[in-house]
Amino acid sequence: MIVVGDGALLIVGTFKRRVPDPDFKLYLSSNITLADYNMGYCLTGTLERGDQHANQFQTTHFAVIRRCWPASNDGHDSQTHKTQHTYIDFLFNR
Q1: Rounded to whole angstroms, how far apart are CA atoms 68 and 15?
Q2: CA 36/CA 54 separation, integer angstroms
Q3: What phi, psi does 55 have (nearest 5°)?
Q4: CA 80 from chain center: how many Å?
């Protein structure tokens, strides 16, 4: 994971291989639109997959990370008050 700056992250990795050349790049930014914020997202970005034969990356997915709020506690049971975990949604293939 690399902090790019201005609220952006770059995550680079491989699938099941232990070689230095990456298979994917996930770029996430906290610089989001008001529409994205209203839909509950805190980060948006893109996923790029590498093509070993062409030696280049292509954007394949749009990625978002949703804001998560603690579950509401109505006073019924203190065990039910848990924090939801953040997750990544891949909305569509490009």
Answers
A1: 28
A2: 34
A3: 55, 50
A4: 27
